[in-house]
Amino acid sequence: MGGDGKVFTLAQVSEHNTPKDCWLIIDGKVYDVTNFLEDHPGGDEVLLSATGKDATDDFEDVGHSIIAREMMAEYHVGEIDVSTIPKKKAYTPPKQPHYNQDKTSQFIVKLLQFLVPLAILGLAVGVRIYTKSS
Question: In sequence order, which residues have a C-beta less than 8 Å from that of residue 24 and are 6 or more positions away?
Fold first, then answer.
């Protein structure tokens, strides 16, 4: 097929999302994979689910063979205008609740962090003294 230097927008490529007309974007290139749908080892659903977006990550995650990569040239129809592809959003973790959920004052928490181990130590020493004298 060959690309012939055609440049497509994401909207144009997104229109080709049916089993009778299926285009994919991989590594900035546009591929018309309609004739390959029946032959694709993973089934046509895999290819159809990758339409309307940049499918590069989907393609790379599978780990295609060298032969599969060479076959791509046969289906190449043009390039994608990268300015039409939305930027990926960076992951922002959800806000974590504050450690002190029960609203206990910080003074009491620090006091307990000091007194509880001290009480355990005192109890251990008391048990040791009591069992040694018996």
Answer: 13, 30, 31, 33, 47, 50, 51, 55, 59
pLDDT at 123: 95
Tokens 């032959």, residue? 39
Helix (H, G, I), strand (E, B) or coil at 101: coil
For tokens 């039409």, name the residue. Answer: 84
Burial of residue 47 (number of CB atoms within 10 Å: 0-12, 13-18, 19+):
buried
Give residue-wise pLDDT tens across range 2-51: 556 789 999 999 999 999 999 999 999 999 999 998 888 888 888 898 88
Q: CA–CA separation, 32 vs 22, rounded Å?
A: 6
pLDDT at 124 over 90: yes
